[in-house]
Amino acid sequence: MNFASDNVYGVHPKIMAALEAANRDATHKSYGYDDLTKRAEEKLAGVFGCDLRMFCVATGTAANGLALSAMVPPYGAVFCHAEAHIAVDECNSPELFTGGAKIIGVHSGNGKIAPAQIERALKGFNKGEHDPKPAAVSITVTTELGTVYSVAEVKALSALAKAKGMGLHMDGARFANAVAALGCAPADISWKAGVDALSFGATKNGAMFLEAVVFFDLKLAEDFTYRRMRGGQLFSKTRYQGAQMLAYLADGLWLENARRANGLAKTLSEGLAKKNSVRIPLPTQANEVFAVLPRALHEKLQAAGAVYYDWSPECLGPGGLAEDEVFVRFVLSFATPEEDVEALLKL
Amino acid sequence: MNFASDNVYGVHPKIMAALEAANRDATHKSYGYDDLTKRAEEKLAGVFGCDLRMFCVATGTAANGLALSAMVPPYGAVFCHAEAHIAVDECNSPELFTGGAKIIGVHSGNGKIAPAQIERALKGFNKGEHDPKPAAVSITVTTELGTVYSVAEVKALSALAKAKGMGLHMDGARFANAVAALGCAPADISWKAGVDALSFGATKNGAMFLEAVVFFDLKLAEDFTYRRMRGGQLFSKTRYQGAQMLAYLADGLWLENARRANGLAKTLSEGLAKKNSVRIPLPTQANEVFAVLPRALHEKLQAAGAVYYDWSPECLGPGGLAEDEVFVRFVLSFATPEEDVEALLKL
Amino acid sequence: MNFASDNVYGVHPKIMAALEAANRDATHKSYGYDDLTKRAEEKLAGVFGCDLRMFCVATGTAANGLALSAMVPPYGAVFCHAEAHIAVDECNSPELFTGGAKIIGVHSGNGKIAPAQIERALKGFNKGEHDPKPAAVSITVTTELGTVYSVAEVKALSALAKAKGMGLHMDGARFANAVAALGCAPADISWKAGVDALSFGATKNGAMFLEAVVFFDLKLAEDFTYRRMRGGQLFSKTRYQGAQMLAYLADGLWLENARRANGLAKTLSEGLAKKNSVRIPLPTQANEVFAVLPRALHEKLQAAGAVYYDWSPECLGPGGLAEDEVFVRFVLSFATPEEDVEALLKL
Amino acid sequence: MNFASDNVYGVHPKIMAALEAANRDATHKSYGYDDLTKRAEEKLAGVFGCDLRMFCVATGTAANGLALSAMVPPYGAVFCHAEAHIAVDECNSPELFTGGAKIIGVHSGNGKIAPAQIERALKGFNKGEHDPKPAAVSITVTTELGTVYSVAEVKALSALAKAKGMGLHMDGARFANAVAALGCAPADISWKAGVDALSFGATKNGAMFLEAVVFFDLKLAEDFTYRRMRGGQLFSKTRYQGAQMLAYLADGLWLENARRANGLAKTLSEGLAKKNSVRIPLPTQANEVFAVLPRALHEKLQAAGAVYYDWSPECLGPGGLAEDEVFVRFVLSFATPEEDVEALLKL
Fold first, then answer.
1. Which one of A92, A131, A327 makes the best mutation probe of the C interface by having the most chain C beta carbons within 10 Å?
2. Average pLDDT of chain A?
């Protein structure tokens, strides 16, 4: 019963099969100029229904940092949620790739930021060059608190960003889960909503190592091959990323995986909500379930071998947690066995 | 007939099988704390016969930059060969990871640097803090010109580096080829010769994506998990690197692959040398063959579908190339078909 | 009536005289090796009663960034107040000099941070290398809100910093004002209280361009000449900084200036507090007065030519400001005419 | 007899007087918004006969690094002479300010670079994103070897730079000496010859601390206030730089000073050339004299108290120096006493 993260699970069989198939060809061009990668970019453009540029990189952290580096100067500022991955989970990596930009986290109860919060933060930017230059807004579409931005919310943020001369970056580590949750077209929640650059994650959702920086604003892509190479992120055998991407997108596998994970999360969340002793303080909108458990139950679950993380009670706001309560996160994956969810609920 | 690089070839079947096997386990710990990666580190320590720390990263470029960042401050200088990968093939990546250190390339005819050349460069460091601080020597053990450092040569460089308070980094993108060529123990050409940090490459020699920073000087490893994370180089599913490493080292596969590639290079080099019209200006010591071809022959080979790179005639020194000659590089891989070598030689 | 900042005033006549005197010698050694600078360092060591290293730089921003760079790695974190100069007034300069460290501002009502706040922030650092490494605490001794740390407060922070393996940096842009306010020895509020590195500012208090990084922890000074040079902060004619420092410290000029400025601030603060319509929400402990004015009065003062800054009402906390009120800052300088204070109070 | 550098001498009396005069005004706006600095920019624009933007900074090193940062991305390359100040005298400072760009020094006998040398270097840039992106050419107008670029030479470099999409930066640490030597208008050797950004130095030629980044390409100036602030280079009391600049430019003081220094250099150079035992291997075109002395004479001069630097014999090329010879540099300043030159020549 492992609910620690979606990345504790492995590679989807179809993606593993694609890696093997790619290995049958004797030789490929190196460094991203192979046919598989080219075809993957075309396929992705088809999925999004627009012209775009795709750059595969090693990790989501690298995708975020490199994407931001294309829109944020070293003397710039990025606005994001206080719990955003780029703010608190990437060990100064955005600072490395942008050359020292400032990541400014704003607080909110549900993992999302709203235009008013950024506007309030911008009010403090009244000291000319003594402040950094506001340069980008970054949002995590399936947020770090398990909620999902609506199309309207993204559009509102995009409108503000544009009005203030900032770019809009979307961290899509769980992009598929968001699209599955919203039931919209991928375009709706991305470029049609004003997103300039997307970190398109696949590793959590069934790939082995597949994260891509996707530019809808093609100007941002201009020198990006240099940025990726300099970041130590250009695989010599990029073909194995192209192969994963093709399999991931083929026949909607990516959305199928996401729908399954989201569905399991819904089952778990609803099951937990029925218990008197358990609270679900945040809506379960994708594949993560946040719950407040009595400590006794928590200890029982762990004793039974359930693996999941304690989460920072700060996210709950003041007075959110009683002495004998624990705030925890369960993550559901495309590969989580249904029985595990059932077993947990029984406990 | 593809001799462009060793990385145009794919993944060795045993390594692909290991990836599949790793995928059979339902779940693994993420971010490098899985058992496969731990076992891989132990296995590598066994291969080198010493205590060491191993950190898997995405690319050789990242391995070099991150390894250097642990021994070179931003105000430091690194001495290497003028044609070293870190100097001319990594798009300012060492500068990124070290925070702006200076990479100083010294010239020599055979891809190797010698203590005297570094000492001469150091003579110019007489301006106190107006010069950067000499901090490291970096050598590519199988050099960018196909030669291989001897144990004695590495020891001499190490002695100089130590005497001057500098660390010694080894770029081992083709470490296996060097060990196979020298017929020595891995320890002899690395830590026993004074190497502090090694970029241990496996991708060119049969892995899918497997490069590791290996520290023999354990102090350098202290904060390295932070550096790797910040560099966007920590895979969530590191287990697939651990699996590759275990398979790569099992039963000497890594040396077997290297020996095969080196052997093919020897065959090709000796075959070419027999032609009157072809010169082999650099000794073929590992899996790369450098040759000077008459332009007519070059065109004939290309017309026949042989793929390989022109190389910079500057490496040959002044007067090294006649008007109607071309300087080229052939790289042999563990997977290059013998018939391709024969076919090329026939042409 | 200019209360905008202490740096709108000029250079103290004795310091200007010292610059002229230094200009009478025909030649001096360049780049910090002159006698004036050496003597200034000795004099400063005498003032602090300890061995120390002094490095003159151009600006307070540079002093802070460079001092931090000696104790904080690029993957590190610095804890400071949310309104600290390094957090919000230096346009990512600490990020530049440290190579991308994270500056983490914690909130408090009076411009000071306390151990408990840092301990609470550190609780979130439970994700290993996904968090940056806690590396330093930075405090502004005369805070951005006009308060002054007591010796006991600094000692408590130092104890926590040491316990957590962090260094303690003090931004002393108004160090003289703090020492004058506390009536203690310079040593008491610096190295004896556990400060490792001090940005010793003199420009606001009567110098032309004189800020110094002072290391009490001599290990931090080891490679600092490199850092300063690399930062573009090594004046060729450093002698004119040495001369300023000698004059600034001679016969206690620095404290005399600070006492005068502090005294004027006290006069202004007490005078304002007597008005029914004015509130002084923060204690006036050095040379800055923070006041809440009725908008009508504010407009009257400005019409009369009084120059001062609006300040962010966020510092007052929630509900701190009524609709028709303005939050403002008055800064008093060693050179502010007494009549200006009187004139303002009359208005 | 101090010929070590022009910066061993002090501040010209007229500039010192201007500093005092500026100190008479009670208050000034801070951070570069004062009237003196505005007027200085206008005055400089008049001197150059064009619209321009001027940004005062602390040091020539900062001026170079910051100017380059506006035209060179972190993944870019700068071409300069192998002995250029930015390449070998600034301790990785250009790397800091550009975020890690590569400074590529090309060799030549007289301190100047020519288009053909850059073109040859560019031939090696054939590996796409594995090479950095060629972004700027940087030349030192009065070179580190005492020669001066002609207008035609600068135009030729500018034409190449433009053709290759690169900017042209001029290090004008001794810009006045070049203009005095060429007898041209300042415009001729700068923007009319295609220079985009100029480091305009005044400290060596009579100022106390006055270096300015001057942009002729106004687009480069757009965000430059941020860059300067972030670099820790924005003085709070910038007025004292404005005052120096106004005095420096008033009545042609800057050129008068330079002409005097150049004239002394000519006298010394011609005097030395008359001695049988002394060689002048590089033409004396500005205020620096490079000479090859017999060691016996060298020792005699030093015993007599003459101060000057040994210079790297590498600049002379192979076979340039006999066993018993010394290669040295004498620098003449606006303030060097004529008698010192005479005294040296007598020796």
1. A92
2. 96
Cα C175 to Cα C188: distance, rounded to the nearest angstrom: 12
Taking an 8 Å cut-off on Cβ atoms, the answer to whether B128 and C225 are in contact is: yes
Nearest to B148 by CA among B88, B206, B188: B188
Nearest CB to D91 within list B90, B124, B129: B129
Q: Which one, of B16, B347, B7, lies nearest residue B173 by Cα? A: B7
3-state secondary structure of D227: helix
Amino acid, res. D234: L
Chain D residues with CB-CB distance to C66 below 8 A: 232
- Nearest to D3, CA basis, from D263, D302, D274: D302
Assign C51 to helix, strand or coil: coil
* Element at D137 (helix H, strand E): strand D133-140
Residue of B nearest to D61 (CA): B130
Contact: A223, D99; criterion CB under 8 Å: no
Query: Across the strands, what pairs with D328?
Result: D291, D310
- Tokens 């000074």, residue? C221
Summarize pLDDT for A112-126 with one digit per residue, the tens.
Answer: 999 999 999 999 999
Average pLDDT, chain C: 96
Which pLDDT tens digit goes with each residue over C112-137? Answer: 999 999 999 999 999 999 999 999 99
Rg (CA), chain A: 20
Strands C309-310 and C325-331: antiparallel
In this structure, what token pair is assigned to residue C5?
A: 């900042």
C130 three-class SS: helix
Q: Please, is C263 exposed, middle or buried when counting C-beta atoms within 10 Å of its C-beta (0-12, 13-18, 19+)? A: middle
Q: ipTM above 0.90?
A: yes
Cα–Cα distance between B99 and A289 in angstroms, integer?
Answer: 40
Chain centre distance of CA B29: 30
Residues A71, A101: Cα–Cα separation, whole Å: 11
Interface touch D101/B90, C-beta < 8 Å: no
CA distance A133 to A125: 8
Mutation site, B29, B53, B75, B234, interface C, largest C CB count within 10 A: B75
The per-residue pLDDT for range B265-307, each reduced to its tens digit, is 999 999 999 998 999 999 999 999 999 999 999 999 999 999 9
Residue the block writes with tokens 């400072």: D93
CA distances to C60, C95, D229, D232, D300 from C74, rounded to whole Å, are 21, 8, 20, 18, 51
Share of residues in chain A with pLDDT > 70 (%): 100
Beta bridge partners of C26: none
pLDDT tens by residue, C29-55: 999 999 999 999 999 999 999 999 999
Task: Return the amino acid letter for A103.
Answer: I
Q: How far is CA C315 from the centre of its chain?
A: 18
Token pair in block for residue C99: 């190579």
Report the distance separating Cα C42 and Cα C35, nearest Å: 11
Residues lower than pLDDT 70 in chain D: none
Strands (E) across B85-204 are located at 102-106, 133-140, 167-172, 197-201
Place of tokens 């989201």: A262
CA dihedral sign of residues B36, B37, B42, B45: positive
CA–CA dist D2, D190 (Å, integer):
31
